[in-house]
Write a structure and sequence with these properties.
The complex is a heterodimer of chains A (about 375) and B (about 200). Chain A has about 375 residues and is α+β, with helices and mostly antiparallel strands. Chain A has helices at about 1-30, 60-75, 130-140, 230-240, 330-335, 345-360; strands at about 80-90, 95-105, 110-115, 120-125, 140-145, 150-155, 155-165, 170-180, 185-190, 195-205, 245, 250-260, 260-270, 275-280, 280-285, 290-295, 300-305, 310-315, 320-325. Chain A has two domains: about 20-50 and about 220-360, no CATH class; about 55-220, outer membrane lipoprotein receptor (LolB), chain A. With about 200 residues, chain B is mainly alpha-helical. Classes of the chains: A alpha+beta (about 375), B mainly alpha (about 200). β2 of chain A pairs antiparallel with β2 of chain B, so a sheet runs across the interface.
């Protein structure tokens, strides 16, 4: 009799635990930043990426992380408008852009090229400042500290936070955070050789939006699909879609969306970001007219310089597009993580196989 | 910002060298986005700097590092791969290698027998070299075999499915939306001014 009672108790406990898991896990895995109320740090972000190592943070590191999280909240909660430049450097050249932007809490960011009369792009998620999801990954890959001296940007005093690679302590990024509001004023990212690969900064900033712009039609929330759960992503993987948990020597999958036959995977290590778009079919050669055809670790790809690096290639019945804000080697390693180009010769495939093996041994390749 | 007429002028070199303070650099970078002349000036400065950097960074001849390392380890010197060929080995051999230091004879170590580990005889050395070559060849063949295996597992070579024209512009906007703050608030993708500067 007592055995039956014990058994029934165990069943009740198991069902209860399952119900709790069913409610809690999808929210944890999805890691929706819009649900963030200041405690996003506890959210599990990775869609099947490597488990987070135990990181012992120092007081200085905690102070720097607090400033970054404050910046993420300020970017979401504060109204602001101003002019910002963005520059990126790559082997193909330097790209620059100056934009005017407005952020109204709850409505998102509207952006237009400096001097234009209508907005050309919008971020309706309100994530155009520091996104909390990559920020949580940042702690895993970089140690952050606050510089001893305050900096200046757009005429405002700023705390300067430096991010260094865990391992070789090389400087990988610098953030200038407004000492008054916490807002991100300037950011610079560096490659392993210490060269700037990306910079963005306000040259003019007001903490008000005096004349809000009308949102353009393409700013509708329907512009993007919802983030998938790990279960949905697993379903796609079983159906033959390639979705590596880690690419580019350490960038983790933190967001996956599927809409109209296109799978959009987003990867980050906290500083650099790569998106991979996959769709079934073979590449229409007309669509890459004017693009440069190059080899990346033995794979034939088409590239085009720009603010973000753009790479297109096809193989194995799939067409893939990479849009990356990352150094060239990271982009090459990302391409390697997916199946080969369809028109590769056998020697090229052998060479690619060797490159891939080398990347297993040395993630920086 | 600048010396004359609101243009970058002589600040172009300092901008390329990273010698400007943050505010001045922000202004300069924003300025070159809209000013063709200044962009060209910065382009030229970067080109010159890039050329100079390449000039000051010559690449060593292949194998030099291995040979230099071998100098410090007499037992590892491969006679067939010395830096200067032996006198008389070829009509074009030139002067004898008088300037090349000869390998120092091994210093006897107290307590060690002559012919011990500090002074190997010729036969074991040859055997050691042979086994090392064998290991290298075996390793090389193994690596190539693994590369072939990896290449074969990367999928079939034929094209499949419908013709696809990826909407890259829309993807860029989607990328900026999804990665949010990662690109540093730059959702205006596709409208950038590109300067043709090689690094």
């Amino acid at each position: 009799m007592s055995g039956a009672i014990r058994l029934s108790r165990m069943v009740v406990l198991a069902v209860g635990a399952g119900a709790l898991g069913g409610v809690a896990l999808p929210a944890l895995v999805a890691g929706d930043p819009r649900a963030d109320t200041g405690d996003t740090r506890s959210v599990v972000l990775s869609l099947g990426a490597l488990p987070a190592p135990a990181i012992r943070t120092t007081t200085s590191e905690r102070q720097a992380l607090d400033l970054l999280w404050k910046a993420a909240r300020a970017g979401r909660d504060r109204a602001y408008s101003g002019t910002q430049y963005v520059s990126s450097w790559s082997t193909a050249g330097t790209s620059s852009l100056v934009v005017d932007l407005q952020h109204v809490p709850g409505k998102g960011v509207l952006v237009r090229r400096a001097g234009a009369t209508t907005p050309t792009a919008a971020d309706t998620t309100g994530a155009a400042a520091l996104d909390p999801r990559p920020l949580a990954v940042l702690e895993k890959h970089y140690s952050v500290t606050v510089a001893a001296q305050l900096g200046q940007c757009a005429g405002r005093t700023a705390h300067v936070v430096e991010a260094r690679r865990r391992g070789d302590s090389a400087l990988a990024g610098r953030f200038w955070l407004d000492s008054e509001t916490g807002l991100l004023l300037r950011r610079e990212l560096y490659d392993p050789a210490g060269r700037a690969v990306r910079a963005a900064a306000f040259v003019d900033l007001q903490m008000t939006v005096s004349h809000p712009w009308a949102a353009p039609p393409q700013a509708a929330p329907a512009g993007g699909a919802a983030t998938m759960s790990t279960r949905e992503l697993e379903g796609l993987r079983r159906a033959g879609w390639s979705a590596p948990a880690v690419v580019g020597g350490g960038l983790e999958l933190f967001d996956a969306r599927h809409r109209s036959g296109v799978l959009h995977l987003s990867y980050t290590d906290g500083l650099f970001a790569v998106s991979v778009f996959s769709q079934r079919g073979h590449l229409n050669p007309e669509s890459v007219k004017g693009w440069q055809r190059v080899k990346m670790n033995g794979t034939s790809v088409w590239t085009r310089p720009g603010l973000s690096q753009r790479v297109v290639w096809a193989g194995d019945g799939w067409v893939r597009t990479v849009v990356a804000d990352a150094p060239g080697p990271v982009v090459s390693a990302t391409v390697m993580a997916f199946p080969a180009s369809a028109d590769e010769s056998f020697p090229d495939r052998v060479q690619r196989g060797l490159h891939r093996m080398a990347s297993w041994l040395d993630p920086t390749q | 910002m600048s010396a004359r007429d609101g243009h970058i002028g002589e600040l172009a070199a300092a901008l390329v060298d990273g010698a400007l303070d943050g505010n001045t650099r922000d202004q300069a970078l924003a300025h070159i986005t809209g000013c063709t002349d200044c962009r060209s000036a910065v382009d030229q400065q970067r080109y010159i700097k890039d050329r100079l950097r390449r000039l000051s960074d010559p690449s060593p001849p292949p194998g030099l590092t291995d040979r230099l390392r071998a100098i410090g380890n007499p037992s590892d010197i491969d006679v067939s791969r010395t830096l200067v060929p032996a006198a008389g080995s070829s009509p074009a051999a030139g002067p004898p290698p008088t300037s090349m230091p000869k390998p120092h004879p091994p210093v006897p170590v107290a307590g060690r027998r002559p012919g011990g580990t500090s002074r190997p005889s010729a036969a074991p050395a040859r055997s050691h070299r042979r086994s090392r070559r064998l290991r290298r060849v075996t390793g090389g063949v193994g690596v190539v075999a693994l590369g072939v295996a990896a290449a074969l597992t990367l999928g079939p070579l034929r094209a499949q499915g419908p013709a696809v024209s990826p909407p890259v512009g829309a993807y860029e906007v989607e990328h900026a939306r999804t990665t949010g703050g990662v690109p540093g608030t730059d959702p205006g993708a596709g409208a950038a001014v590109t300067v043709s500067v090689n690094r």
